[in-house]
Amino acid sequence: MxxxxxxxxxACAADTLADIAIVRADNTQIRFSVELALDADxxxxxxxxxTDLAENHGMLFIYKKAMPRYFWMKNTLIPLDIxxxxxxxxxxxxxxxxxxxxxxxxxxxxxxxxxxxxxxxGEAKRLGLAIGDRxxxxxxxxx
Length: 143
Description:
Elements: E1 8-12, E2 15-23, E3 29-37, H1 40-45, E4 57-67, E5 80-85, E6 91-98, E7 113-120, H2 123-127, E8 134-136
Parallel strand pairs: 3-4
Antiparallel strand pairs: 1-2, 2-3, 2-8, 4-7, 5-6, 5-7
C-alpha cells in the first residue's frame, strides 16, 4: 500500500480536478478522478443538475472540521453512492444508490465526517468498497 497518493490538482474552468485512490482491505487500489468541492458554494452545489457521471469519476467534499454531516439529493438527477470518511480517512458509511431528487437524509448517524465522496449509483458495490477501506490522498488536517 502506498504511504500517500499526492492529491494532484488541475484547474479546469471553475472546477478543480484531482486523482485519488481508495485502498480496499485486500490492499488493491481503486482510482478515481474527482472534482474537488473545497468551499461552501461548491459543496452546496455538489453534483446537482448533472445528467451523467462517468465510471470512476465523482466529487470529493473536503472539510476542515470533523462533525456529523448529512447529504440529500434535491436537484440531483442521477443516482449516487455517497461515501463518508472519518478522521483517519477510513470509510465509515456508504449511502448506496441515493435516489435522485429525494429529500431523504443520507449519512452516518452521530459520527464525525471529514471527507465525502460522491460517485455513480452502484459503483461502490461494483468496486467492492466497504467500511474501513481508506482514502489515499494528501488532505488538509481535519480537526
